[in-house]
Specification:
By secondary structure, the chain is mainly α. The chain is 67% helix and 0% strand. 26% of the residues are buried. The protein is built from twelve helices and no strands.
Amino acid sequence: MSLLLYPVVEAYRYALQPVAPFTWFGLSLSTLDVVATVRLCVALRQIREKLWRDHVLKTKTVQSEKGVVALPEVEQRSFVRDAASVLLVVYGGEAVTFVPAFYTAVQAIVEKLPSVPTPAFENEVPLATLDGLTRAYLLCNLIPPMVTAHSSPAISNNPWTLLITALFTANAGFFFTNLFSFFQPYALTLTTPTEFLPYGWTTTDLWCAPVITALYAFLTHAQPFWADAHHVALGWLGQTDGVEKVAAVDPETARAVCALILAGLFTSRAVRNFGPSATKLKTKVQ
């Protein structure tokens, strides 16, 4: 194991240990579960607040320019609606734990906070590493067993089933919340999800799900297809030395590789969205 991967492997081993006080009640919630839940609830509040500011600004702009407002009116926020949006995101794919009451409780605490930080370069870049760790756990540990542990060989050994499951499971939650405008400040309305807008398919979260799951399956030989693909790929590189089979990579090491790749992708996205170049571009547009 390389020195680069060892810290990631050890971080997972520590973060996945069940912690008190949840163990007192027979719940196997880990540090990773808690941190990921808080991160998700804070991020969703940031999204709602940004959409509220954008809507209010748009309303003021239309009023000053046209005098007539044809925009939906801002609706008073409801805790039930916000909690439902969190659970929809969670059980649509972002799940790192399986306790709805826990997500609802964290959502209530986050909503009671006086304020949350506005997404910026200074906080989004460091958090990209955390996002990489939690997303890798989802794509490497939670999603593949849904397929590989199936009782039917036609499903458990089908690589396309694995990739499609990763794509839809990891993205369905945000797809439906965007479809029904859960995060918008006005009443629930059907609208075109971000994924269906022009270049929506280029969203990192959308395409990284099947790619990372495929990489993990490729390294760990999760299905016979991926074991054969691993052997063929090493054969092209001249590293098989005539052996019929190549050894699979240890699952913890493979997950660490996926986490580092995701952390790099999310870091580059944060730099692109909040870095100096993005600030200069917004200034020029204004």
